[in-house]
Amino acid sequence: MVDDNSKAKIWAPRSVGETRALYADWADTYEDDITAMAYATLDRIAEALLTLAPDLTQPVLDFGCGTGLSGIALKKKGFSTIDGTEISPEMLVHAKEKAGPDGPLYRKLWLGTVGEIDVAPGDYGIIVATGVISLGAAPPDILPVLAQALAPGGLLAFSYNDPTLLDENYMSAFNGLLSDGTASQVFRENGPHLNEAVTGSDVIVLHRT
């Protein structure tokens, strides 16, 4: 279990090895802990996509799927075909356990490669990265990797929590996608991420040009 002192350090720069160790230690209690902190971004991203996605049956890639909470939020909104990838083997075990009346939550699940997306460009028209691209997790340069992997006209939905919004490297990666014409912003809204005592977030949806 991750103690309160460790949680306070989640949104801070660290090495890949340190990040993996954090989530390996946290995997078994992650869902209880994050639910207790009122994790709202999951549902906010799913709701935003519901208003923008032309087809809820098209495959969605849940990048950095963790234990599967993001997949659950998407499924509740009607997205029927969800694949997931995650770099933490311990978190992935819990995602593989998720199932409903129609079978497993995820159509496909795989252990991801750090810094890569492990899919061919155009395989997905929707990519979701809920709470993934942030200080202490995926670096800013993964954002253009995800955008460029989308099919033309596809949607990339992600969140920047408050500490990440203040980091110039993350904002530069975001602004670069808009300025170079790779993508356009079609949705952005600030709101709760975890409870107010922890952090808020911007939910952002980009359209691949």
UniProtKB/TrEMBL annotation:
Please verify whether the record's keywords include Transferase: yes
Per the record, the domain of life is: Bacteria
- Give the molecular function GO annotations: methyltransferase activity
Keywords, ordered alphabetically = Transferase
Q: Which InterPro entries match?
A: SAM-dependent_MTases_sf
Record-linked Pfam families = Methyltransf_23
Protein name from the UniProt record:
Mg-protoporphyrin IX methyl transferase
